[in-house]
Amino acid sequence: MTARKRATSEAASTTTAAAAAKPLTTDPPMAPSKAGQILKVSLIFFVPYLYLILSHYNIEPDLKRSILINAAVSSAGFFLTLALIPVASRYLLRRNLFGYDINKKGTPQGSVKVPESLGIAVGIVFLVLAILFQYFNFTADSIVSTPPYCFLNCERKFSAKQLLSFDDWLVEYNAALASICFMMLLGFVDDVLDVPWRVKLALPSIAALPLLMAYAGHTTIIIPKPLIPYVGLEILDLGWIYKLYMWLLAIFCTNSINIHAGLNGLEVGQTVVISSAILVHNVIQIGVSSDPEYKQAHAFSIYLVQPLFATSLALLSYNWYPSSVFVGDTYTYFAGMTMAVAGILGHFSETLLIFFLPQVLNFLLSLPQLSGYIPCPRHRLPRFDPQTGLLTGTNDGTLVNLFLRQFGRMSEKSLCILLLVFQLCCHRPSAAASVSCLDGYSLVGTNETATLENLLTVGGSSSVVFIKVQDYLIAQVCCIF
Question: Membrane-crossing residues (predicted)?
């Protein structure tokens, strides 16, 4: 869902007839990207993120090298996406895949044809990067340590258990790419065929099947300490119920990005913010954990989210206000499924919901209309005043309209920035969940909440406590940014 009105078939045929009657003209030039501005702002994330990887945590050399190689491949994907978007935009315009910005209706910008479904360009680059990265980490000649963070040749001999683990990770990685590719194609079909919204809700349930069938991780949960006397167990194996939860999580994450939309830059912006939080969370978990399998899971997540973050930054440079491209359902489905896969295979699906708090709130606000209890219009967007250029909130149940009703009328750009700042603030609770307790015992690994009070009151040497408090403060700073 984007703030656009798709051209009708009549309009498309009229355009074709007019083009046949008049001399051919070239398409209007696309506005230059805002890549420079986007990169300057993104330094707020890059500096602490690279500090955590390179200096703060003593990450194994092979794992660190693989993360940095993935980052380098992702950086190349950023520039490739920047170059591909204008080419794809011209092609989509020729195929009449364009729309008009509803939030600029009544102004000259509101009559400009804006190419949509540009998520297909981002998705293609992402899949190419992810497949190429398999050579460095998931091929037989790249093994040097316990998979999946292996690199280059080595004379080490591997046990049958290690090779079996390698096969499991390769199967899960390919299943993840299959689910992401499947969801991207379904999103593009939705953009082309304009699928009814009730059918849209069911599309992710199909795309998530390869992931669920290949999932070989745990299906257990840690019972919170206050509930242990009542349950009688510390660890509970949910079995198929846990897989049902993961299936529902994939459906929610995919649709939540699509529902929380309607402003230039909002869909891509929230993806960039959530991706940055996921990356910081993964690096902190790798740094504080001593469990190799636990590190594998979070490294797996990094390998998927870094390319998503880089390609999304490139798309944001064209989609930021005033947008020169629309991302379409192709991108929202693709981005939502990628983050869901990263959370599920990274074994932090519970923490992932904290990153999606604004999307959860938006879903709860939308539930009466989505369920049919209240009439649901096609576009649940605010009203635009062409005289002032400001948006006014309507009674539709969305977070966008709620913010306008609470904070008053404002411009589209200011509203988008406010919503993204709110998304950032909602990530602060996850900072506590990204810090370990003492003696290498991972608090997140036990689903126990870390707080500054816990870090100061638990037993241990003063030097260890200082290190843990330092981790806590760094996590807070990273999640604020």
Answer: 37-55, 67-88, 118-136, 170-189, 201-223, 244-263, 269-288, 300-321, 333-357
